[in-house]
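Section 3.1: Structural characterization of target chains.
Under the original work plan, the team committed to producing a structural model for every single-chain target entering the pipeline before any wet-lab resources were allocated. The record below documents one such target. The sequence was received from the expression subgroup and is listed exactly as submitted; it comprises 202 residues.
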Amino acid sequence: METLSRLGAFMNNWRTPLFNFGSNEHDLQNLISRNEHLQNINPADFEENSRTTDEILRIVMQGIRRFAGEQFEGLVIHDQLIKFGSSREGLKVIDALEFDSILVFDINGLELEPVLGNTLGLVRLQVNNAEELLEKYPWIKKYGVFKQVFRNKYLINSRNLHLKVFESIIDKTRELVNEMLRDTEYSFDRIAKPPTINIRIL
């Protein structure tokens, strides 16, 4: 996968947080030492939690690919999640047992072009072959994944993509995963915070 090759497969791993402080970081050290999430983290705990997270995410990805294929023709879910954030970088974080990943996906035949938005730093994604895909994949029109802003200009509606497509996939996946985890100590819940979805392993 191109994204993973740019990142480097070796870098797509979790790293145990490092708690080394400089001579002028006493305030930071005191702050972290009072944090209930961090003060008792040790390499063995982190290793166990990272293995559990990877195993649950492996099962979650099976469900996501299955339901994406069943419900949304042309929606392609790439095989591997991209790990990112402090749990990959081994930094001092608010919660060392929080693991962030990026789900990489595509729509077959989608031709995108970044365009500047009205807000400084905001980039929108313009679909250059929207009418072709609207005809080919009816769910795109049904769920408003493309937003028409001019006669022949369409942009990706990321909110609808999140709320109407991926939340549906995640909810069906949650049912599947919880059935598979019935005889274990774990369960899978989710909280939607567009453009992210929080998965809690309980």
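The chain has a mean pLDDT of 84.
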